[in-house]
Amino acid sequence: MTAEDDAGKKINLVIRHATGEEDIQIKCKITTPFQKIYGAVAKQKGITTGSFGLLFDGEKLNPEATPKMLEMEEEEQLDFVVAQIGGGRP
């Protein structure tokens, strides 16, 4: 597959919630930055992009990375986690 072929290749990502809420399916190009995927998830859930995180293999996704950079494949699962605020001791 050439770089040109890669640019147009699309995959489905499954956003899974730890709370058991219904999964979200996102279809995107493998060259789409995760920043756009964060935006799509936030829009579907009616929340801000800073109020949650997406994890892949236990690691938080860099908004500037792409599925291609992480060698993601069709139906790859991402974990949706609510951002933790505070928690430190005074």
TrEMBL record:
SUPFAM superfamilies: Ubiquitin-like. This is Ubiquitin-like domain-containing protein. Pfam families: Rad60-SLD. Residues 11-87 form the Ubiquitin-like domain. Signal peptide: none annotated.
